[in-house]
């Protein structure tokens, strides 16, 4: 019986973001840098603050929230970056953020996931299995584009897993 829960993988997709406001959350050994901020690990709260920063600057938020997860060898930390695009580049943003005019990540493994949030791990696992089976080296960086919740309690996301260069 086909339940419609297939996870289709593409091996050469590009993620392109323009005028992205970025907020980094740095995690050292499960300790969050700046953890005195009570909402530091609540992406929805941070995203709303980011939207307000964009609007306050006179720009308009564009598209959904994007989350990048990566490790920093020089900091020895896991970093979660929240990104939100604006309709234009903002020169003067609050110093807790940074503005990136263009983020382009080519040659990614990609899947669109539709399902319950608790099951998103299966999409990541399948991406890793395909990388293994096709001898594709991945560098551990991933981007998840939150396309939205549905009325039935499921979510839709696009997941991009960055390949090693070369």
Sum this structure up briefly.
The chain is of the alpha+beta class and 166 residues long.
Topology (SSEs and partners):
Layout: E1 10-28, E2 31-32, H1 43-56, E3 61-72, E4 77-86, E5 98-115, H2 120-133, E6 138-149, E7 155-163
Antiparallel strand pairs: 1-2, 1-4, 1-5, 3-4, 3-6, 5-7, 6-7
Task: Give a quick set of tags describing it.
166 residues; alpha+beta; Multidrug-efflux Transporter 1 Regulator Bmrr, Chain A; six-stranded antiparallel β-barrel; 49% strand
Radius of gyration: 17 Å
* Adjacency order of strands in the biggest sheet: 1-4-3-6-7-5
Q: Any idea what the CATH architecture is? A: Alpha-Beta Barrel
Range of strand content: over 45%
Largest sheet: 6 strands, antiparallel, barrel
List SSEs in N-to-C order.
Answer: EEHEEEHEE
Number of strands: 7
CATH topology: Multidrug-efflux Transporter 1 Regulator Bmrr, Chain A
Structure description:
- The protein has helices at residues 43-56, 120-133; strands spanning 10-28, 31-32, 61-72, 77-86, 98-115, 138-149, 155-163.
- The protein is of the alpha+beta class.
- Mean pLDDT is 88; it is low at 35-39.
- The longest helix is centred in the first third of the chain and has 14 residues, at 43-56.
- It has a six-stranded antiparallel beta barrel.
- It has one domain (10-163): Multidrug-efflux Transporter 1 Regulator Bmrr, Chain A, CATH 3.20.80.10.
- It contains two helices and seven strands.
- Helices cover 17% and strands 49% of the residues.
